[in-house]
Amino acid sequence: MSDRLTVLGQTLLPKRALTELAGRLARARMGWLTQAMIRAFIRRFGVDMAEADPSDPRAYPSFNAFFARPLRAGARPIAPASHVCPVDGRISQFGAIGAGQMVQAKGHWFDARTLTGGDDRYDHGQFANLYLSPRDYHRIHMPCAGRLTAMTYIPGDLWSVSPATALAIPGLFARNERLVCHFDTDRGAMALVLVGATVVGSIATVWHGAVNQPRPGEVQHWRYDLDQVVLEQGAEMGRFLLGSTVIMLFAQAGLAFNPQWQPGGAVRLGEAMANPC
């Protein structure tokens, strides 16, 4: 019953209109009203401003500036591992991709080719799906060093990506709006998929800026054969403006995930995620 109510409630919501309204409010500089929104958000979600730079909420002229706040230097050391966690958040699922299928939640699977817009390189690789709650740091960093080769924007639905919704909506991540960034790494192809959701105002990368503002409504593709966009392990690659999900896909299967990782567990940027088998 609760799953049906989750779906029904979101079906009735005007998700795209709410998302556009939230984006406009988040971009606006409204003085005392913006400051009141930021303080209320910090109280509601228990945001640790001691980790932010600057730590004073009054330093942020818009809600977007606050939400994409940087961390202070040294707040997230990079572990000595071949692959490190790219975000603060919680583990949804991780493991092997079986014949192109990945676990979304208990009893639900989704398709790697559909998620990426048709790429078959990840059909027998591995994946990790990480959920960023509203309180989390919302910049995404590189799990390992890589050279950008292509980027695809895929329009779609704007369902919430909360754990409750992942249990209720089949194929959720392959149905929602998403940005797929492909990299060449020392261990083969890697894709970072930034999934949009209700009230996620924009998805941005460090080399392109905001990709879905305004939302184009059609698939867009960029190649980087001549542009040398090379990012080191731990470097920022993108950000969300409001919470969402990051999915990593690795073409090669030879990774052993951190034995302390469990679905539902909290993770932090820079901690060890995986090493070669």
* Total beta strand runs: 18
- Summed over residues and divided by their number, the pLDDT gives a mean of 87
Strand content: 25-35%
> Using only CA atoms, what is the Rg?
18 Å
State the shape.
globular
How many individual helices? 7
Q: Which percent range fits the helix content?
A: 10-25%
How does the major sheet shape up? 9 strands, antiparallel
How many structural domains does the protein architecture include? 2
Low-pLDDT windows of residues:
none
Helix and strand run: HHHHEEEEHEEEHHEEEEEEEEEEE
Task: Record the SSE blueprint.
Blueprint (H helix, E strand, L loop, with lengths): L1 H11 L2 H13 L4 H14 L17 H5 L15 E2 L4 E8 L4 E5 L2 E4 H5 L9 E6 L7 E3 L4 E9 L8 H6 L3 H4 L2 E8 L2 E8 L6 E4 L3 E2 L9 E4 L6 E2 L4 E6 L3 E6 L4 E3 L8 E2 L4 E5 L1
Antiparallel strand pairs: 1-18, 2-5, 2-17, 3-4, 5-15, 6-14, 7-8, 7-12, 7-13, 8-9, 9-15, 10-11, 10-14, 16-18
Please give a structural write-up.
- The protein is α+β, with helices and mostly antiparallel strands.
- The chain has 2 domains: about 1-65, no CATH class; about 85-275.
- It is built from 7 helices and 18 strands.
- Strands 2, 5, 7, 8, 9, 12, 13, 15 and 17 form a 9-stranded antiparallel beta sheet that branches. The chain has a 4-stranded antiparallel beta sheet with strand order 6-14-10-11, with no helix packed on it.
- A hairpin with a 3-residue loop joins strand 10 (about 200-205) and strand 11 (about 210).
- The radius of gyration is 18 Å and the shape is globular.
